[in-house]
Specification:
Layout lengths: L2 H14 L2 H12 L2 E2 H8 L3 H13 L3 E6 L2 E6 L2 H14 L3
Antiparallel strand pairs: 1-3, 2-3
Helix pairs in contact: 3-4
């Protein structure tokens, strides 16, 4: 593996490793969600959710779209969906 790839993968995993961001990604694996719906699930403020989503967007992991007064988020990179599915298989299923 080339050094450039190692750095990129390390940055991606670092971004995903925060507990709130990882929970957000697990929720977005199932469906597109509005910020308010995410906030209810992770039990934090809209501002905190927005901050975490901004970090995920800056890394190219999540994209968003505005519909009226709501901002909907989804996982943009198909590889992230595969990675989360594999992590669930390895660590969450008994």
């Amino acid at each position: 593996m080339q050094d450039e790839h190692v750095k990129d993968i390390a940055a991606l995993l670092k971004t995903m490793s925060h507990p709130i961001r990882l929970k957000i990604l697990c929720m977005l694996q199932e469906k597109e969600m509005a910020v308010g719906d995410i906030r209810e699930e992770v039990k934090t403020t809209n501002a905190n959710v927005s901050q975490h989503l901004s970090i995920l967007r800056n890394q190219g992991i999540v994209s968003s779209r505005k519909d009226a007064n709501f901002i909907y988020n989804k996982i943009e990179d198909e590889r992230i969906l595969e990675l989360i599915a594999k992590m669930r298989e390895l660590f969450c299923e008994v």
